[in-house]
């Protein structure tokens, strides 16, 4: 359970090449903004406002941003300390050990796999709205989660949804695209980022203009700013603001991608924390401004929909119909790229775990023509598509947030563990106010977890327990590291002396 990989092993597996240190602090900020802005602001803001926080959802965004900052600083230290590429799964395997890596892999399934389902449901909402503007109407019972009442303008119609067909189809199509192979282009990704940011900035500017032009007509939507609590846990009041913080936390998923650029930063010690905190700060400001426009243009009670921004732009008035279509197209393009990236990330985590022996070997089987892990990708596609087709966005989003918060809490714990067990490892960056900030990161992550509905926490407990049992039944017995199938060759050195090979005198061979 405590077996650890050496850095040399990780680098050999991933065939990491020497990367050019070309990213400055502002490059990292823009990278972070591109990764962060996605489904959260386009999809979950409306649910958080309508069901939990009202207009005070902007305070929820501020709280979620602070929690992410704690975890972000810990990611920055790990990225500058461990010269390995990969996700938090790789960090865990290289530091705490195999069991922690397995748990992290299980949590990342919630962070990436279910997050892709949430985005797909949001994509479906915007697509249905756009097609409706064009006179094309998909049957209402094929646009929502199975068994849930069909809603029109926030009011139940008495009928129920059968299936979310658009969400299912987009997941299937993107899974097939991933099987064939997607060649990532920096210019293409930059264009997608530009579209997403432009859409939100345009929404803020136009919405702000409309509000200021007739402010008295819109201020009643902010009365009260913090709706009175209903007596139920997490429904309005400050309890609702904290509950909404766990929901909109989803909007910050992706900032940890900045930490993976540690080997390409010009000065990791200074640039990594600047990039992470800078991107979080910029996105928090954008999110708060979007929340202000959303909740002033439309009464918060009308926002419990998968496409809140579309609902808001439709409320701008008929003279802005062209703008509404533009916003929806931009949102659809941005959300499509997010689904693709999340599914890609999930397949590669499964691929790495299968190569490590922790998952069955077919997960690592590569297609002879396309050179992609096709069995793994098709399975991920089926899981994500079914989740998006059958389940409602609130349940999926809550499960994603819980898994991500738990993963971030473990990352904060990893920093403390590594400081105590290996204090002398060179660190390009150190979390300030140690151990206070990592401890606050752990406490705040788990505090937000317990604001989630009990049924979601019960699912999370069963899921985690099942994954742990699966490790002992399969993972531990088939681990390649436990079988000794990894060798540390000449010129390759492990991260910790106790992992090093021994010379003829029984002394560890370490880097001079």
UniProtKB/TrEMBL annotation:
The keyword Transmembrane applies. Gene3D superfamilies: Amino acid/polyamine transporter I (1.20.1740.10). InterPro entries: AA/rel_permease1 (IPR002293). The chain crosses the membrane at residues 23-43, 55-78, 99-126, 161-181, 193-216, 236-255, 276-300, 320-345, 374-393, 399-419, 431-450, 456-474. Pfam families: AA_permease_2. Its main location: membrane. It comes from the Bacteria. It is found in: Membrane. Keywords: Membrane, Transmembrane, Transmembrane helix, Transport. It is a multi-pass membrane protein. PANTHER family: CATIONIC AMINO ACID TRANSPORTER 4, INNER MEMBRANE TRANSPORTER YGJI-RELATED. This is Amino acid permease.
